[in-house]
Amino acid sequence: MKKIILIVAGVVVVLVVALVVVLTLSLDSLVKKGVETVGPQITKTEMKLEKASISILSGSGALHGFHIGNPEGYKTPTAIKFGEASVGVKPGSVLSDKIHVTHVKVVGPEITFEGALGSKNNLSKIMENVEEATGGSAPADKSSPPADSGASKKLQVDDFLISGAKVNVTLTALGGRQLTVAIPDIHMTNLGSGPEGITAGELTKLVLKNINKETFEAIQKSVADVGKQAADALKDMSKGGTNSLNKAAETLKGVGDLFKKK
Fold first, then answer.
1. Containing H/E element for 184?
2. Diameter of the chain by CA atoms?
3. DSSP 183
4. E strand or H helix at 67, and its extent?
5. How many CB atoms lie within 10 A of CB 206?
6. Sequence-separated (6 or more) residues with CB below 8 Å from residue 97
7. Closest C-alpha among 84, 74, 163, 174 to residue 123
8. FRET pair for 228, CA 20 to 30 Å: which of 44, 103, 211, 245?
9. Where are the domains of the chain?
10. CB under 8 Å to 1, separation ≥6 — which residues?
């Protein structure tokens, strides 16, 4: 009898382990498929995820090799990309109607800004696409499927952090010259904490809205600072004198180094 009990217990353990493995593999593939299927419906650009690795037991994991492509007409291949982001999920919520994400932490993403500071740039175009897909200010394209089709689950994200982001900027007004600026950390909390949660489209809109805001402000400040440096250098040159001319030459060289031809 004892032997039979041990055999049954062993079989149960094997089945549980097998179930955990299957669920983990399924969850990883579902996350990847969701990003690459639902994502492009929202942004109307390519969206790729190399892989997801999330533990069904602890809920901890990571996303690897993510990027959002640029809309047609832009030269740079990606708008936003990162190598790895850590995530946490409450395991019990995976099978419910609302997936509870405890945290998302993206460190060192690379953002590309191409175009003008008005509405004619890649980030503004993607935001416009997201607005259309989520029923924002622009009219939705009735010929396209809803952005969240195939993704009926809602989300709750307790903590979403983007830190150490850098923006590669190519401004039309500067003849295609490029500079790199840093943006402050973006920290959002209690997203979809109500009973209804939020959709993938709504989460995308919130994240992109904050990225765009910080990016535009950083570029404007950087260009204004450079303009002030150039103006100060010209004043020094007008004063004459060896020291003033040397100082002006160094300042103008620094300004030139900031804007390197792409």
1. none
2. 103
3. -
4. strand 60-69
5. 17
6. 152, 153, 154
7. 74
8. 211
9. 2-218
10. none
